[in-house]
Each structure stands twice: as C-alpha cells, then as structure tokens.
Amino acid sequence: MPVPPRILIVDGDRRFAHALSQRVDAWGYDSEIALGADAALACLADPQGRPQVVITEIQLPAASGSSGEPGGDTLLRRLGVVAPGVVPVVLTGYGTIAGAVAAMKLGVTDYLTKPLVDDALQEAVAAAVARHTLLSGDEQDQDGNADTKAVAAPRGMVGRGPEMAALYQVIAAAAEGTTPVLVTGEPGTGKDLVARAVHAGRRAQAGGPLVVWAPDVGSAGPGLGDLWAKAAQGTLLVRGLDGLGPEHQAGLLAQLRADADNPADVRLVATAQREVDTTLPRPLLDRVAGVRLAVPALRDRPQDLNALADHFLKRACSRARRERSLGPATRRALAQHAWPGNLRELARAIEHAVTLSCSTVIEPEDLPPAVAGAPDPMALDSPAVGDPAAMIPALADGWTPTRLADALLAPERRILRAALEAHGWNRNAAARDLGIDRTTLYKKIKRFGLDRPDAAA
Q: 276 and 334: one domain?
C-alpha cells in the first residue's frame, strides 16, 4: 500500500489543531500536531518521518532564541535550513496583505485565512504535496517504494497518462535550468500552466518574479524593456509568441540580442501554436526555443479524460454551490467526443452541464449539444445544415475548381461573424470561443472587412 503524505499541523489552539487533523486525515493524509514553533522545529529536525507539508498559524508564541517575532514567522524563516524541501502553507486567523507578501517571500505556496474553508485548504494541501514531489523527484510507486523516475503533476495540472508523465519529467528538468523554453500546443491545451510550472522551479523558490508580456494589437502596453528589467532574477512569460505583430517580434529579438551582451538574468518562457516553425522568423525562433515542450491535445490522452472531467466538475460545483456527479452515460458521451477545443472546451462543457442540470446526476442531455452528440436546435434553421453549398460557394454546382485557400475564405468569414455576433461583437469572448488569440482575430477582422452592424451609426 502506498504511504500517505505526512502533514504537520502547527497551531496554538489544541482543539482547532485536532479538528483540523481529523479533516486532513479524512482527505487521505497522515497528519501530526505541533502546538507551537519550538515543537514544530523539533519534529522537522528529525529526518525520520519528516512531513512533506507544514500547515501553520502565524500568530504563535515566540520561538526559543528568536527576537520576539511571532512563532509562525520564525518557523517559516528557519524551515529552509532545518528541513529543506518541506512546503509551507499558512492558515491564520490574523491575515493581512503585508503578512501574505512576507510569507510568500519565505516560500509559502498558499496563504489562507480562518474561518476554515475545506475546499480551499484541501486544494492548497494537494498543491503543496505535488510541489514537494516535483521538487524532490521522490514519488512513490504502488508498493510504497520511492520511484525517482516519477514526477508529480505541477500545480493545476491533471493527468497521469504516459504523455503527461513524460511532459512532467521535462518540465521538472527545464525548471532547474536557465535555457529559454518554448511551450507549444493547440489552443486550450494548458500551455500557460506548463509555462508557469517551468517558472515554479528554482527561480520561484528564490523569490524571482513571473512577469507576463502579451501586448494587444495596436497597443504597446508596458514597454518590453521595462518588463525585462522587472523580470530580473525571474521569468518573462511571452504569451502567444507567434501571434505577436512583426514590430513586437522585432523588439523581442532586439532585447534578446542586447541581453546577450549585458545579461539581466531573465529566464524567457514563451507559448505558441505548434506551427511556430513556419510562422516565426528563424533568428527569433533560434533564440527562444532552447528547450521545447509540446503539450498534448486532449484527444491524445484519453486515459486522463475522467480525471479531468472530475477536476472541472469539482471546480464548477464549487462556483455554483451545487452538488453534482457525472452519470455513466454522460461519461460515455464525453469519451466519444473529439474535443477540438481541448481542456478549455471540456471545462466549459462541464460548467454548462452543472448550470443546466436539474438533477444531482448529470445526464448527456445536460451537456452542450455538440458534446452530447445531439443536433443543436439553434443550428437546425441554418441553410448551411445539410447543404455544404450554402456555406461553401465552390460546391454550389457540384464542384467549381478553386484553390483550397480561396474556397475556405467564405466559410471562415461566416464563422468569424457568427462568433462575433454571438458575443455582441466582444472580441475577447469571440477569440476565446474560436480558440485563437486576440491578435489573430483582429487580423482576420481586418482581412475580411468585418464591421459591427452599428459601427457606422
């Protein structure tokens, strides 16, 4: 049997500590209680049975040899020396913004305040255990033996199939280096989570910042030079690298060349579509693709579908304050769908079902029609249904010889307009539905001359 992760609970309130211990044990962990900083440090000093995670209150009596600061602060400050690798979580009844900032600088993964919220704490503990396993590379196999080849899923990532297990290995290795990383994958696969997991290695542990650069078309936003300086000792995440305009791409290339002469110790991590080799200038690609991480599409990891569905179900139920479960027929419907929108589409499908379901068990009819395999009643009146020629002029007379790129222009224009109209011409929402970035959508709107109906009014 696998050995459950050990959690050390540190709190001055004995009754609260015991109540919390019972909850943590019910979640499948093995908890231990320390009623103060001195007791906690004594437990942590013993390598045998050392916990993976510490949940601590900040306002504890001062520890021995301290300058009178709260015992929780002393515990966090000494943790990296006494028990390196143990991941701290704060659960305090005296939460402040300043306290949260100070705690994060000391390596705290989550800063929670009392009264206790079970879901939030359970998620925080699971993330801390995963972080400990990721950093230590010490996951247990089914017999309870240490398996140094297995790597836990980074925070927010779900799945243990071979594709994801291989990806976690590369993330863990890349996280410890300084080489630029390029994360590629289809829209909705979770490229941002992978990029953040790379940052969460040595740089995040050292307190280095994560700075995100995703400039809008036609808006320079914060200057790249300023953001580069902010990211010193940390990571600059460039979202949608292949969607940047030529001016921004040239600016990034110039910055990389300048940094080669005067290094600012900035780790570059970028995300892009898989076709990046044909869309990026070669000089820029050569500088950003030191390590490549390809995120698999959902259709390529079917063994993870149930776990992902349960993950999104839990999140949707928490938001809606509802209790729901997935029926067997619903799981079959999910398994039969192709998921062109990947994780983003799955998350929305589950949220749709939780919102519309009248029973505690979600049935296939609660899913979006496209996922459930049923015809969409909103589309039945469309002349395009059952009539390809209505959407594709090249098929109007059986077949009119037409270049493929030209033949696809008419349906693409109709699809873009339909998405924009569905969201009241909100471009951000339309781009999200289409699985493209805003830069790409803006370019297509301009290319097809799509104007909002009331634009001239």
A: no
- Listed residue (94, 17, 19) closest to 54, CA to CA: 17
One domain for residues 89 and 44? yes
CB atoms within 10 A of CB 272: 25
Q: Is the pLDDT of residue 377 over 50?
A: no
Average pLDDT over residues 346-361: 92
Residues 333 and 419 occupy one common structural domain = no
- CA gap 87, 6 in Å, rounded: 11
Number of domains in the chain: 4
* Residue count of the chain: 457
Query: Which residues make beta-bridge pairs with 267?
Result: 235
Model-level pTM?
0.52
Structure confidence at residue 342 (pLDDT): 92
C-alpha gyration radius of the chain: 26
Least confident of 73-82, 101-110, 157-166: 101-110
Q: Do 286 and 201 fall within a single domain? A: yes
197/263 same-domain check: yes
**CA gap 366, 181 in Å, rounded:** 40
Cα–Cα dist 24/293, whole Å: 35
In this predicted structure, the answer to whether residue 139 has a pLDDT above a threshold of 60 is no
DSSP class per residue in 117-159: -HHHHHHHHHHHHHHHHHHHT-EE-TTS-EETT--PPPTT---
User: Which structural domain, as residue segments, surrounds residue 400?
Assistant: 388-448
Average pLDDT over residues 191-195: 91
Under 8 Å CB-to-CB from 47, ≥6 apart: which residues? Answer: none
Supply the DSSP symbol for 56: E
Residue type, 264: A
pLDDT of residue 218: 44
